[in-house]
Amino acid sequence: MRPMLTVIVDPADRWMDRAACSGQAGAYDETATRFEQRKARELCLTSCPVLNECYEWARRTRYTGTAAGITFLDGRRRGHPDSAAS
Which of 22, 29, 37, 64 shows its CA 20 to 30 Å from the CA of 77? Predict the structure, then answer.
């Protein structure tokens, strides 16, 4: 079992308590397998009531992993840090 990843970085991000993925963050980070990423996207897009907040948080914090049904900054995982700067 993966260790749990705590992703709350700001008290204003309390919306995470309502996220469909609450307590499952380990499956969403940049080390997740393609299968885990696909399952994460599925959960986001079918069950999550806070997609907009999650998307904004992922962009603001430059999160690398799956959030709001999207895999963010994928180029960084492939060793292209310049592609993650946008």
Answer: 22
CA distance 56 to 14: 13
Angle, helices 51-61/34-47, rounded to nearest 10 degrees: 130
Cα separation of 35 and 19, whole Å?
A: 20
- Over residues 36-80, the pLDDT tens digits come to 888 889 999 999 999 999 999 888 888 888 889 988 865 554 444
